[in-house]
UniProtKB/TrEMBL annotation:
Source organism per UniProt: Shimia marina
Taxonomic lineage from the root: Bacteria, Pseudomonadati, Pseudomonadota, Alphaproteobacteria, Rhodobacterales
InterPro entries in UniProt: AB_hydrolase_fold, Polyketide_trans_af380
Name of the protein in question: Transposase
Signal peptide annotation: none
Length: 312
């Protein structure tokens, strides 16, 4: 094994037979002879490890934890499978990648116990993975999109339009053998903030652009491995919420952190209503959904709460 030191360490682990690119964040004073509580991270759609994981990894390491952030299959620096295309972030594979990340952490002698921390779509990934992976001892979800039914299916006509577009994209790619890249949220890598907000239809346009846009703090210019363009058949899986459907089967103690003022709050509150396990709920009025991605006050509030919960 490569010598590991405090801070960020570049590692890989196997999933679907290929090496996924990962960063392992170790706490200050790291001693491989000791054991540490460890976190497997799950990021928002369609992020890479240099976004949320690069923010939460150092924060959790500063609180004494080991944190693993990684690029899912076909994302960032992780390869796609032979004959497949990049930017193909499918829910079922995200869950299996997470299971393999847990297996990788289980091989490290300094890992004491493993917890899961997901942000936005990552919350759904962690919740879904934890249903049948009890190697994950506790889970925390920040601005989590676990209860997607009310959020994504409230307008059935729009959902069916998404499905039709995704079906057509899948057929096109099968017939041509070429990728069909689209901008899932209407934001491409060249748009200005004014153009994106002016396009309308996105109540989170401003804060989303400030993070993901061309000029955003973690957009395609700031993070070269990131793009707002994504494979066109994504909707066929993103419209299925496993975490919500199996919420009553989750046995691990759970922490749900969200913005009470965000229109995505229902994705957390309706998930909480379905839980039958031990859980804690922490709602903030002063932060938005995206604030928890990178704004110092919001990140501190969430990571402090997560550290206390995992240490309890």
């Amino acid at each position: 094994m490569t010598t590991l030191t405090a801070g960020k360490n570049t590692v890989t682990f196997k999933s679907f037979g290929v090496d996924l690119a990962a960063d392992l964040y170790l706490p200050e004073g790291f001693d491989p002879a000791k054991t540490y509580k460890t976190i497997v991270g799950a990021s928002p759609f369609p992020q890479v490890k240099d976004q949320i994981p690069a923010t939460y990894g150092p924060e959790m390491a500063a609180r004494g934890f080991i944190y693993l952030g990684f690029d899912y299959l076909g994302m960032g620096m992780s390869p796609a499978l032979p004959g497949e295309f990049k930017q193909s972030r499918y829910m079922f594979r995200l869950i299996e990648n997470t299971w393999d990340a847990v297996s990788y952490l289980g091989t490290l002698p300094f890992v004491e116990e493993i917890h899961g921390l997901g942000v936005c779509q990552g919350g759904s990934i962690i919740a879904s993975a934890a249903v049948t992976d009890h190697r994950i001892k506790k889970i925390a979800m920040v601005s989590g999109m676990m209860a997607a039914d009310a959020f994504q299916w409230s307008d059935r006509e729009m959902a069916n339009q998404q499905i039709a577009a995704a079906n057509a994209s899948m057929q096109k790619m099968y017939e041509t053998g070429a990728p069909d890249y689209v901008a899932p949220f209407g934001l491409n890598d060249e748009m200005s903030r004014e153009e994106f907000i002016g396009a309308g239809g996105n109540p989170m346009a401003g804060e989303s652009y400030d993070y993901y846009g061309r000029d955003g703090v973690k957009g395609p210019v700031a993070v070269p491995t990131y793009t707002n363009m994504h494979i066109g058949d994504q909707g066929m899986q993103s419209l299925i919420s496993i975490g919500e459907a199996y919420a009553d089967k989750i046995v691990q103690p759970s922490l749900v952190i969200y913005s009470a003022s965000a229109f995505t709050a229902i994705c957390s509150t309706q998930f909480i209503e379905k839980l039958t396990n031990e859980y804690e709920e922490l709602a903030f009025d002063e932060f938005s959904h995206v604030d928890f991605y990178y704004k110092p006050e919001a990140v501190k509030a969430s990571t402090d709460a997560v550290a206390a919960f995992f240490n309890a």
